[in-house]
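Lecture notes, part 5. Sequence design as translation. It can be helpful to think of inverse folding as translation between two languages: the language of shapes and the language of residues. The source text, in structure tokens, appears below.
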């Protein structure tokens, strides 16, 4: 009987391990961005920032948000927020009206 119980416990444990990867959390945007930078598909954030800053005409840079394959940079000028979406190659793909 104890041998049967041990076998049953081992089978249950093995079944639990095989389902574990399916329960893992999906990769976060930051993880995806890091991986894309590591593989050369995208520029590092400081390089993206240096590329966009000259186009912002003295607006204050408040910081980035990672949204999948796009980095959203937040600026402020004259009390108004300006959002600039930049792809991994440094191209501005969208800009809010200011």
């Amino acid at each position: 009987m104890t041998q049967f119980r041990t076998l049953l416990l081992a089978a249950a444990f093995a079944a639990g391990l095989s389902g574990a990867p399916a329960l893992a959390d999906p990769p976060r945007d930051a993880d995806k961005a890091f991986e894309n930078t590591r593989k050369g598909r995208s520029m590092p954030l400081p390089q993206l920032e240096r590329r966009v800053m000259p186009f912002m005409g003295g607006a204050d840079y408040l910081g980035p948000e990672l949204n999948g394959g796009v980095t959203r940079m937040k600026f402020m000028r004259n009390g108004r927020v300006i959002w600039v979406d930049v792809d991994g190659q440094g191209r501005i793909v969208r800009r809010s009206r200011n």
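The translated text above is only one of many valid answers, since several sequences can fold into similar shapes. The first helix runs from residue 2 to 23.
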